[in-house]
Amino acid sequence: MRLTVIGTGYVGAVHAACMADIGHQVLGVDIDPARIAALTAGRTPFYEPGLAGMIKRTVDAGRLRFTTSTAEAARFATTHFVCVGTPPRPGSDAADLRHVEAAVTGLAAHLPAGPDGTVLVGKSTVPVGTAQRLADRLGTAADVAWNPEFLREGRAVQDTTRPERIVAGVPTARAEARLREVYAPLTAVGTPFIVTDPTTAELVKLASNSFLATKVSFINAMAEICDATGADVLTLAEAMGADPRIGPGSLNPGLGFGGSCLPKDIRAFAARAEELGLGESVAFLRQIDEINTRQRRRTAELAERLVGGSFAGRRVAVLGASFKPGSDDVRDSPALAVAEAVRVRGAQVRVHDPEAADNARAAHPALQFAPDVTKTCDRADVVLHLTEWPQYRELDPAALARVVRTPVIVDARHTLDPKAWRAAGWHLCAPGRPRLG
Ligand code: UGA
């Protein structure tokens, strides 16, 4: 089957490669010539396990090509996936649909006037009602379907080739048949295929991300209660998660959620609901957001208390800069927000990250970076473990105790072994686990 993928950012690059990998002929389209040249040469502009190899393999096999020409895309196929970004509008929480509009208008200009079986499939996360608006605009030129993506950074290839479900929001039988054909290799091995209308499909994505964010903020709110009462949030989360109605996923307490999706999606969803006069229905999302940003503030304040009440003349070592391990993405990274807050309050901050240091340096030029953990922790008054890279679990606490000025560490992600660190002479604090402190 021939299809195009318009937009070769995170979602688009992964979708294009995975669709080629399952056997389709795919043309990836982007307005950025540098990006197209890089992808053609098998280079991905971000770190994602398995993706570069998959692109190279499918390009070499002749199933994946890239272009900057929308006219070529319109000639190449009658199935087009729109995978462009929907960042927040400047100065607002609402989603900016400029890229979606540009992609659709650009393609529409090259479509034949009458119906030719074109199906436009949106994958971008958009405000409810967007598909309908685009359909009204395109008229008979194309069916507009919505097929949200649910991939997680760091597991994007796996999430796309072996998804938990495929949601096909289709306006016509033709669009449904087309999406069934696209995903036949996945449904053949048992992936559930949920057919609905485009509006419901748009909402599935927003509701799912809102629910995940709610779980994370819920357990972090419980961590605050634990801190005040002496209870232990890790045991609490484990016991709650054992109930299959609750489940253990997204119930890890810590510094909260960041990245390019959850924070922006819940804000855009709340803004859209307010626009529809339904702000009250999802008012809790504003609180979820507030609980989330509060964790960053609380961690910075905890660090300040631990160095004696003032950061003046203090050195703070930060372990982790990406918004989560397994990714070099620093967008809305909780770790960097804390590092920056601590720096602004007067500390000298040094940051380490195994993959995201370059991106972090570009986004936060005032922070200092060190190439390894030892240099990062050199003469530190407090160490903040903020992104749970697996290699930090393997650190030797005794060796690190000899490097720092004061052996005090905040394990904001709960992945260090408190016994081992305390045995090596460290004072280890973990939010929501007051009895450790
Ligand atoms: C998220 C969703 O998980 C995907 O299903 C969705 O497709 C994607 O957004 C998207 O909209 O494109 P992602 O941002 O890659 O994916 O990351 P998650 O693994 O969900 O983590 C999000 C943030 O929450 C991270 O900062 C992570 O550290 C934090 N988190 C996650 C917790 O603090 N606790 C948890 O238990 C889980």
Automatic annotation (TrEMBL):
Pfam annotation, one family: UDPG_MGDP_dh_C
Enzyme Commission code(s) on record? 1.1.1.22
Q: Which organism is it from?
A: Streptomyces pseudovenezuelae
What keyword terms does UniProt attach to this protein? NAD, Oxidoreductase
Q: What family does the entry list?
A: Belongs to the UDP-glucose/GDP-mannose dehydrogenase family.
So, what pathway does this thing act in? Answer: Nucleotide-sugar biosynthesis; UDP-alpha-D-glucuronate biosynthesis; UDP-alpha-D-glucuronate from UDP-alpha-D-glucose: step 1/1
So what does this thing catalyse? UDP-alpha-D-glucose + 2 NAD(+) + H2O = UDP-alpha-D-glucuronate + 2 NADH + 3 H(+)
Q: Which domain of life is it from?
A: Bacteria
Protein name listed in UniProt: UDP-glucose 6-dehydrogenase
Q: Which residue ranges does the record assign to the UDP-glucose/GDP-mannose dehydrogenase C-terminal domain?
A: 317-418
Q: Does the keyword tRNA processing apply?
A: no
Record InterPro entries? 6-PGluconate_DH-like_C_sf, NAD(P)-bd_dom_sf, UDP-Glc/GDP-Man, UDP-Glc/GDP-Man_DH_C, UDP-Glc/GDP-Man_DH_C_sf, UDP-Glc/GDP-Man_DH_dimer, UDP-Glc/GDP-Man_DH_N, UDPglc_DH_bac
List, alphabetically, the SMART domains matched.
Answer: UDPG_MGDP_dh_C
